[in-house]
Write a structure and sequence with these properties.
The chain has helices spanning 8-16, 43-57, 101-106, and strands spanning 70-72, 88-91, 96-99. The protein has 110 residues and is an alpha+beta fold. Residues 10-109 form the Glycosyl hydrolase family 30 TIM-barrel domain.
């Protein structure tokens, strides 16, 4: 799940609703105050994604959904000023995009 909610929550949901599938959604990284926003080339965030996916799948999740596959270099756009990181960062000014380590981590789960 994440640092705030452990995967045991998925076990509890499955026990209460065994006939339903569980699909975690809106996963992201770079949301904590200490580590907020885009960090180009950060492999720790790729490890965090992979760990989160594996934990979810090992606790009854049928899949895993990223919140934003592509964001701009500032971690947006966002109307609530919740600037986070993303597997693909778009630099519209330079007309290019960057595949982050998180992008390659996701590739192991296709």
């Amino acid at each position: 799940m994440n640092r705030l909610i452990g995967p045991w929550v998925l076990d509890k949901v499955h026990k209460s609703y065994p006939d339903k599938f569980i699909l975690p959604s809106e996963a992201c990284t770079g949301y904590s105050m200490k580590e907020r926003g885009v960090k180009l080339g950060n492999w720790e965030r790729a490890e965090e994604y992979a760990s989160d996916i594996l934990q979810d799948l090992n606790h009854w999740a049928s899949g895993w959904t990223d919140w934003n596959l592509a964001l701009d270099t500032g971690g947006g756009p966002t109307w609530v000023k919740n600037f986070v990181d993303s597997p693909i960062i778009v630099n519209a000014t330079a007309e290019e995009f960057y595949k982050q380590p998180m992008y390659y981590a996701l590739g192991h789960f296709r």
